[in-house]
């Protein structure tokens, strides 16, 4: 590696931060992967490893293109360790005053279309979001995890609680394991880190199946709030069998969705132009757990079903300090639907997908092996995640707390190019006849520039 630029403050700080994501790798591999991330920031894109090398890395480092390919395929760099390192960094920005606030996890999957047939794990996938008659395409599917952590944010002179949705990472779904199994794997990676926190898991109706629910609820500090299918079997709570012989029943009378929705005594309030009905029920997918069932009714007459295992009164949330108006303006009378309001925070994972695909070129990878693809996606994800974490970790970047991650990336890109320019100019000036005069002029320019200084 070239030592010329590691003496520059911004590049040096980024190298240290990015290298910490790969604790199990060798020093050289850590630096290669960290430089890949710096190149993505410098170019504000990630078109391909070859493009990053030609336009930036070949000029700033001594490593060859094959060295970066080998680093991406390095088996010692586990994606699990990258995801755990990101989770630890996300938890580190939570202030001491908010240590009791719940942590939110969101699980979902996304797909990336690929034209080539020679990628590992590529296959024909269905995209339910397409409405052009071409819902099937060739590509990869990935399961991902997002962690939303609370931070203090000042609004109009008041300290309020804001949740930052930090994307933790991706696992490729290639037919060897189901998406539910991969979701369980992601949970197992981060839950040991969160064993002393109250954790709420959010996901949509596709993941509301017994395999994931049973695994999630095996953690004593983890609760679930999820959307569910309309035809999910629900039952009343069983009647007491005190004084009667025989085994007590597990379920009461079968309940239908419209039966809950049409019973006006179950309606609590209106939320976002929806009427919300609430009832305690039993379901087969949750096993022996009693769950809160929420049915929302829109003006058009359509129903949506949600389940939650959270007791609203057991939530460790400072409700009055929430920045989100919907969470803050909840009276004690309507506390029963508070877990349903928390489900809206799941949208952070969809926002991350949009930003990474639109602005970080998540699907532009050209590497073919499964290991290299997962490494590259998790690297790109790490860059995006750290743009959300750094403004709360580094006070010098606190002005970017109210801005998008892309704005911080742009600012860092400008700073990286500026430091590279000054370092290159100084190295050229050392062989110049008038080097002392040129160096003095450069020093004056650097001192006059706040960022360069």
From TrEMBL:
Domain of life: Bacteria
Transposase IS701-like DDE domain: residues covered: 20-258
Name recorded for this polypeptide: Transposase IS701-like DDE domain-containing protein
Organism: Dialister succinatiphilus YIT 11850
